[in-house]
Amino acid sequence: MSRDFRGEVAAITGAASGMGRALALELARRGCELALSDVDAAGLEETTRLVAAEAPQLRCTSTQVDVADRAVVEAWAAQVMVDHGRVNLLFNNAGVALGAPLANVRPEDFHWVFGINFWGVVHGTQAFLPHLQASARESGVRGHVINTSSLFGLLAMPANGAYNATKFAVRGYTEALRMELDLTGTPVSATCVHPGGVRTAIARSARMDASTEALVGMPVEQARAHFDRLLATTSAERAAREILRGVQRNARRVLVGPDAKLLDLLVRLLGSAYQPVLVWFARRSVRAQRPQASTQPPPSRSAR
Ligand SMILES: NC(=O)c1ccc[n+]([C@@H]2O[C@H](COP(=O)([O-])OP(=O)(O)OC[C@H]3O[C@@H](n4cnc5c(N)ncnc54)[C@H](O)[C@@H]3O)[C@@H](O)[C@H]2O)c1
């Protein structure tokens, strides 16, 4: 029988917004206890309030955690065991985006995006794995690590190179982790999640360098709005349900949304030849945007 999450405990990073919040609410509806974390205390409080409205009896704890800080993540994992007595699911979901041509990515921005997107996943996995194993042995319910990569962990995209590097790294890390867990017969599994465009705060909170305009053909504020309006085609709620379905069938890879499924297929069919196809599309869209973009005031050096 497939697991229904009732009576399990899920730890979720990045639970103050977007897919993290939607996962919390969907799991609450299914009777799964929650240990929520995020760096954003106000957003976390709002998620906790929404969970309490959805499932008033449910045990839900929340902790302000910066996933880039290993010691803080380790302390949170230990606290989850004290508060809940067990942990069955870990969603390493927290993430940030960075838009900039690779030639212009500042070292501090590279460190920032890797600290959260890649090291956050490593910190969470290493801190929780012993607890997931112990809980699985005690309860007989398989533990599960769910790491969020991206469609951009399957294909690269101009102006997203630093983000691509973090999400390709999450994919390699999670696929190797899954095989190691298989080989050692550990009662814990791992799934890598690759969402396409999902309607969340990700584009609004992204760091974007003004020089991105040369690659995408529009000023950064217009690019953020363009993502929200046209590219983010899947709701966070639907994404959460697709992710949970993937965990239920113990999938190695979960593609979220029709865009992720289509582009994954394209990359498989074309191999590295997807790159000239993307360059062709990018040139075309830059040309199409130009007259519109030239009516905007000149961009400042950094639009952070
Ligand atoms: N929205 C999309 O289209 C999309 C597509 C592919 C992948 N993703 C990935 O999905 C995950 C969830 O993002 P989302 O779209 O829900 O975005 P979101 O911005 O709505 O949520 C991300 C959350 O991560 C938190 N966060 C940021 N830095 C943190 C830190 N240092 N420590 C702890 N928490 C931190 C934010 O406060 C926020 O609550 C991310 O890993 C993102 O890269 C999103």
What features would you describe in this structure?
This protein has 304 residues and is α/β, with parallel strands linked by helices. The chain has one domain: NAD(P)-binding Rossmann-like Domain (Rossmann fold, 3-Layer(aba) Sandwich), CATH 3.40.50. It is 52% helix and 15% strand. The chain has 11 helices and 11 strands. The strands form 3 sheets. It has a 7-stranded parallel β-sheet, with helices on both faces. It has a two-stranded parallel sheet with strand order 5-9. Strands 8-10 form a two-stranded parallel ribbon. Helix 1 links the parallel strand 1 and strand 2 (33-38). Helix 1 packs parallel to helix 2 (41-54), helix 1 (18-29) crosses helix 9 and helix 3 (70-84) runs parallel beside helix 5. The protein is globular. 46% of the residues are buried. The structure holds nicotinamide-adenine-dinucleotide. Nicotinamide-adenine-dinucleotide is lined by residues 13-14, 16-20, 38-40, 43, 65-68, 93-96, 116, 148, 150-151, 195, 197-198, 200-202, 205, 232.
Q: What topology emerges from the helices and strands here?
A:
Layout: E1 9-12, H1 18-29, E2 33-38, H2 41-54, E3 60-64, H3 70-84, E4 89-92, E5 98-99, H4 107-117, H5 119-139, E6 143-148, H6 161-184, E7 188-195, E8 198-199, E9 207-208, H7 213-216, H8 220-231, E10 234-235, H9 236-248, E11 253-256, H10 258-270, H11 274-293
Parallel strand pairs: 1-2, 1-4, 2-3, 4-6, 5-9, 6-7, 7-11, 8-10
Helix pairs in contact: 1-2, 1-9, 3-5, 4-6
This protein binds nicotinamide-adenine-dinucleotide.
Nicotinamide-adenine-dinucleotide (NAD) binds near residues 16, 65 and 150.
